[in-house]
Amino acid sequence: MTAAEQFLDPVLAEGPVLTVSNLSVSFPSEAGRVDAVRGLSYEIATGEVLGIVGESGSGKSVSSMAVMGLLPGSARISGSVRFRDTELIGKPDVELSRIRGRRIAMVFQDPLSALTPVFTVGDQVAEALQVHRRELSASAARNRAVELLDLVGIPNAGSRAKAFPHEFSGGMRQRAVIAMAIANDPDLIIADEPTTALDVTVQAQVLDVLKTAREVTGAGILLITHDLGVVAGVADRVLVMYAGRAVESAPVDELFARPRMPYTLGLLGSLPRLDDEERRPLVPIEGQPPALTNLPAGCPFTPRCPLAVDLCREVEPELEIVAMAHRAACHRSSELVRSDATDVYGVSTLAEAGTGEVPRGERPVVLAVRDMIKHYPITRGTVLRRRIGTVHAVDGVSFEVRQGETLGLVGESGCGKTTTLMEILSLTQPERGSVEVLGRDVTGLDRKARTRLRRDVQVVFQDPVASLDPRMPVADIIAEPLVTHGVLRSEIRTRVPELLRLVGLRPEHASRYPAEFSGGQRQRIGIARALALEPKLLVLDEPVSALDVSIQAGVVNLLEELRVRLGLAYLFVAHDLSVVRHIADRVAVMYLGRIVEIGEVRTVFRAPQHPYTQALLSAIPVPDPAVERARERILLTGDLPSPADPPAGCRFRSRCFRYTALDAADQRRCEQDDPALERTDAPDQQVACHFAAPYAVL
Amino acid sequence: MARFLVRRLLNYVALCLIATFLAFGLASLTFNPLAAYAERTPPPPPAAIAAKRAELRLDDPIPARFVGWIGDVALGDFGTTTTGTPIGEQLFSRIGVSLRLFALGTVIGVVVGVLVGVTGAVRQYRFTDYASTVFSFVILSIPVFVLAQLLKFGGLQLNAAAGTTILYFQGEVTPSFRGSAGAELLDRLQHLVLPTLAIALQQIAYYSRYQRSAMLDVLGSDFLRTAQAKGLTRPRALFKHGLRTALIPMATLFAFGFGLLLTGGVFTERIFGWFGMGDWLVYGIQRQDTTIVATVTLFVAVLVLLSGWLSDVLYAALDPRIRIR
User: Fold this and answer.
1) Most A-contacting residue of B129, B226, B321, B325 (CB-CB within 10 A), to test interface
2) Is A689 a member of any domain?
């Protein structure tokens, strides 16, 4: 159903479930009052899915907490939130608690901490029932809880209900939270980043469960997310928030096809897409969202807006109708009809790599990993330690990275990506197999030689906050590797400003501390530090996953540019396949400590052969509503098996959809033979599957 | 789980022996139990001293003496003091005194301490929080003997104001008091109020600080928000989901707090004239009596290890995440 059809749908005639008008929320802070939400208005119809999209700090979560009445006492709230005919703002806690969980339910971001650790999952679901229905007996509530857990797809719900939250995986916990949310058949479900903390394949499962929840309860859903792909697939209407305000709202197709606010346009342009055929530069939105204390007059997006004129600096635009059911808050929205993000933001095209002309086979190998193994023992006993099992973290991994290329290493959490990285970075002999850096086997290196080799292999970490010492000025942070390797002081003095300029920061800022920089800038500092010793290979461990999309685009572009300019090789670990699709030349897909498919990015993404690669690609949402609706999802069943006890034969078999479709004789082959990586017909692609067959997921 | 706890217990026996041996050895090396005899006038005949010497086995090597003593202990005989009184009798009567003195104060201290801590956390940065913080720091910074004297002084004032003795501050009971069971109980209570206050106040101050920070950790947690989103009112969510979780880190403190109190109350016992274990240790040192010191040390060691064991049990009971199947 398109949004226009929905507009004529009789459900809408019932009137909105929730009407938020002119909602404002502010908090006290040391720098003055923070205006987290500023005059937000929207409504949700019965059974409608409204997606609220925004970057961190845009006020999307705060506004939903205000609806639930769950903000701390220090928050000042004004405006109106009407649920059906009841005004919620100003209601005392006791009355709100009768609505919460019964009429309005909520699903939170982090399923790890959303459940009380000391009560069983079943009891917690049963509690949601009993709070609102006192007459319900304990055993009836428990039985209903089991039914609900079964409904959201928890296998053996009867016995699993007696388990504690820590015995559940992340995806299972989120299912339990959803079971709680639908327990009392609510009219509205608020889902605050419900899949952000989950792996993509699990995300696809949970979104599917949310869909079930909507069908079962007929509730309206308020879906808060930063992921435009998720919104494209799930929402009917989308509201974009920036600096505490709604800046654009439209039916989902309209918004993605014809955004009328430069911020939305930029956001869409900054997303790397899985279905991109050619490499195009991403659109970074310069700068960062404003601090929400003492906002100046005018449009808060002005400092980052390529179209800003004087009027924008003086008057903040209202959210006004620009087309049918489409509102935007921009003075120049009429000029944005049919504009392209790259034109508006003026992005230069990428220079092609100097090494691009040299065929891959003739470029030197920078890193060669052969049959690497890393097992962790599971032991018991304190005095007399004995081994009772083995975690097969990395179990025979081989790949090569050549000069000037990027190898993307992807897989879900627990597949061994990070262990692989750490083994390589340790530059010591692996448990089994070998690691060669620039043609030198690391086995038998003495300390001195190892330190020398470290110059050529540097690393950028995931968390730009934790990976920089907060007590060191930026100049010292960047100089540290140089000092360690005994570079002359005078040389360091000229090198630091050079490096800062290289990563797009101002050399004048060298004396500042990390806290004074934004997330994106801090990651640039991390990159500058990694580049200080002019390495040949840069190991990037999820370098952009902690950043907002508009910031992420800038860092991705920078990495791309640096690789071309400096002829670097990257080993790029990520769970976001869209980013990998964008940045990598080759990709290796890992599952339970093994590489199941490796090859040239375009081949692997266009015609993946391993069922796991296919499922992984299929789970990733594409920020295009039309494409999303037409896609057939391959849903994997269950969770990642424990790496301490991988299935015999093919490790993927326990979740493999192709395996279940085989006849008994073929199935036996999967159960007994562990498939090895083998070449396919494509020039650069290897797959570890007995029944490999291409399948276009996109 | 049971096997794990049994194994723990066996380890503890060894630790107890080591601790007691060290105390026994140290006391044997430094004490001179015969000094008291030597100073008597007229001095006792050398034969009597030699007999005492033989009786106390002072010429045997220390390990041999220890083995002899601990062997007797295992059979239930704790030996005698230098003056010849059996240790066993005294031991159990003194444990009884200490228990009667500390049980009430500790229970009050734990319960009120937790409540004060939770209130402070829930009303963070409001008057109640500041008031309990100031109270805690004042109490914690007053040495116990000063606090006890202050309480005594307060008791005196109260008695003077009332014109009759409401609170006693010496001993467990009025020595010559005879009356009905109710009257005797009242007499005991009148003796108990001040030392109990001295113990409870300190414990409240101590536990409330820890409970406050444990509760603050929990207050910001997502599961409290979930509980409220389910429809629990805030107070109910705080009590059922918040406090229950915030008690987990307190288990260790409670267990050790209780174990050590019985022996840590030297000052309280001495000041209020209760002849408990703490008092006994001081007496033993004054009399240079190795057996008393070793017995008290053994008792402390047993208590400390039992507390550790108890804290393991409590932890497992409170936190499903660490239960071992």
Assistant:
1) B226
2) no
